[in-house]
Amino acid sequence: MMLFVSLGAWCQVSYQLKKHCGEQFISSAFDWLVTPLHSVSKIFDTNGDSFAQDIFIGDPSKSVECKKYGVLYHHEYRKGQDKISIIEDDKTSNAREKLEYKHKKMVDTLKKTEEEVIFIRFGGHALPAAAWPYMKDREHISSEQLNQLPISIQKALPNLRFRIILIRDAQYMNSDIETQELDNRFSFLHVERGEKPRWEGSDAHWMELINKIQSPVEALA
Fold this sequence. Notes:
The chain is an alpha/beta fold and 221 residues long. The chain has one domain. It contains five helices and six strands, in the order E-H-H-E-E-H-E-H-E-E-H. It is globular and about 50 Å long. It starts with a strand and ends in a 7-residue tail after the last helix.
């Protein structure tokens, strides 16, 4: 049996993994954040100790972001009539406590498992951070930038057997990846958006993708 963990960038990943993977899905702090690529390593490198630090209202998101990690806390704060998030001390404390707990619980769970773990990330840089998964990346992604992910995960979880699957959409995600320079734990897959793109994605297309990952006869690119 393999376990599945979301690395963002959006909540579409955790929504679909929870829907299709059941007990194989391990919840984490990435589930309901908008998480740019560079933020993932920062969170692993600091063991999630700095959520909701130095927060501000981001642009164009109009949601709360933090300077430490650069993630978007889209679901942690209520919005005013102008659809701009309202920063409140109690919400900040709750977000910090909840997300730190979720990250550490995920790490503790993975430290104890002997199963292979599949980390799934949908999207590229995800900048500027915004709560909509169909925006074109402004910059290319290099193999060096991607390779930081397994480095940070391995440092936090030195005994873990894992792979990272990057879900790509050529229309939105740029890439400048020399595969021979890429960590061999990476694989790439494509998921269809459906005729009318929704934040949660296409259930049918995600089910097909997850079945492909779990099938021992399927080769991943």
